[in-house]
Fold:
Amino acid sequence: MIQYKESKLTENALAVLKRRYLFKDTKGNIKETPRELFFRVAEFIADADKNYGASEIEIKKTSRKFYDIISSLCFLPNSPTLMNAGRANGQLSACFVLPVGDSMEEIFETNKHAAIIHKSGGGTGFSFSRLRPRDSIVASTSGIASGPVSFMSVYDASTEAVKQGGTRRGANMGILRIDHPDILEFISCKENTNKIKNFNISVAITDSFMEALANKDKFPLIDPRTQTVFVRDGKEIWLDAQELFDTIVNHAWQTGEPGIIFIDRMNRLNPTSPSETIEATNPCGEQPLPPYDSCNLGSINLSQFVLDSNSENTTDSIDWEKLGDVVRTAVHFLDNVIDQNSYPLPQIEEQTYKNRRIGLGIMGWADILVQLNIPYNSEQALQLAEEISAFIELEARKHSSELAKTRGKFPNWENSIYKDQNISMRNATVTTIAPTGTISIIAGCSSGIEPYYSIAFERNVMDGTKLIEVNNFFKELAEKQNFYSEELFERVASERSLKDIDDIPEQMKAIFLTAADVSADEHIKMQALFQKHSDSSVSKTINFEESATIEDVARAFLTAYQLGCKGVTIYRDNSRPNQVLAPIRKKTTDESEPFVEKRPDVLQGITEKLKTGYGNLYVTINLKDGKPFELFAQIGKSGYTTMADTEAISRLISLALRSQIPVDTIISQLRSIGGSNQIYAGGAKVFSIPDAIAQILNKHFGDKDSSKSETFEVCPSCSSPMRFESGCYNCASCGYSNC
Structure:
């Protein structure tokens, strides 16, 4: 019998659990320990076995098995299951896809459904491809259609307005087919990164488009109502396929969006095709789903399965027996989640039971490679990826088939590929590769199949102290090899790569690679290999250096298609404004002091009041030559410390303005700084006093149409740096995610 030991949680894991997962009373007092949380989840999910004739003793054994794999951090379910299992909310699914019909009633009914899902803690994906294009005639009203992008903005505003109890932020995926008449507007809709900010967007690429691109042909836009070539002003509209592809690539190079999904491939490989059509994916792209379907996810922490890191044979270094046991237990767990779930909509409940899709994935991939001394970008790493992913796929399918014998096949089995193959399956899908931003913090491992983002980072703790968080494997080896020092780790925390740090041995540099060290081709090869053994899809980011060219991005998209990926998301370093994880610029000795303009005796300006979580804030901005020159702020009835902090912020802003620092730069630095008393005021969320001042500055003097505005790169919860992984901005400090 395999023995499991409870793993010790890291300080960071405990902070995340306390902030977001542990049960609290109405006053916010924590009423649960991590151990009690794991028991709560295990017992509630195991209770589903009673539906299949299990005795109380058998249910207790199953509960203990579930507890063992969770408390040992060998496996963790998705965040909604950890948060809500056995509690009043009861919504356990991570993601959903909702249909968007072409009538006003259907559009706003789906928007209502999305709000209900976001309130419960889930994310949503939509295809807007059924909507008639902008400026089409609406026969019932003789009006003019506003098109898909305008309704995306409506959905975005609705998402922004829905609060989720401080645990999970609403997230969306917006998808439009490449042949939709509004495709050019869609591609550029996030050119300003402050707009439609609660959406990831992807273009649904068809095989016919890829064929036209290969042949350098024209490509027709299709009217979604008639499914014929779109006609404008009496002419059929055909676009040059290469020019359209270049437009996608250019925008992805500039901002990281849109991503692309290969929609025909997704449908061709969908186990329930052709009876069901996939139009969209969840927010991070790893779950292609038919309308109203959902997926319950969980991930295996590979760093827990290394037997002997010094073995010459990599295969002998992995505890395959234990891994197989965890896979089987996790499949059982995730199938039970479907029965124990409290579904936000009856349509979702019906569709989920119909297919019983689950998504078992992995995390800790970078960790297991480091433990086995294998570089992420090596052939040996690809070989291990093949071996592990094939093993998990086989064991997961075998156990789903075993469950089908005792519990029954999923109801839609008759319309699936498994009927033709004469394979009994309990679940239409069993494997996926999801982003694991928060649960990987709890597990103390690397995220998904991503390489390390960095080897060390700066973490903000509750009292404002900043600590250097160092990769445990790196720290352990540094201590063994006697080159550990606080000064070195501060340097490591300021760099995205170890390659230029002289005090680190070359052997360690070769093993401790980061996303910045891995080429786009190497990223894609890794993604494609895991896709080969994934029923659903793979959430991964293809990272580029800032110097990467547009041609590099184009080649990545084409390579992903050629290697069998179902989709691809790219991110070029510093392609979005104000990226705080860029290397820290060191001040040179010959830099002169900035010019500070003298204040005239008389200035005129404006004063505005804004409600904050600390009281009413009064901000006065004086102008010189029509531009902001100085700023004064006063906060009422908040105590001397808050008043002093507010005055200090005002003085520094005034100094910056008089030093000719652009107001948009000041705004971008202050926006979304998180505070302990966050409220909604004036139709927007006010995170803190600095954020409130930035909002007032932006209202009167900001470049509202500029892309140099608010991004998710500073955590709105704790103000720590955010990292972009698997299509999401994630905070390594507090576990916040914009997905």
Observations:
- The chain is about 40% helix and 15% strand.
- Residues 454-513 form one domain.
- The longest strand covers residues 615-624.
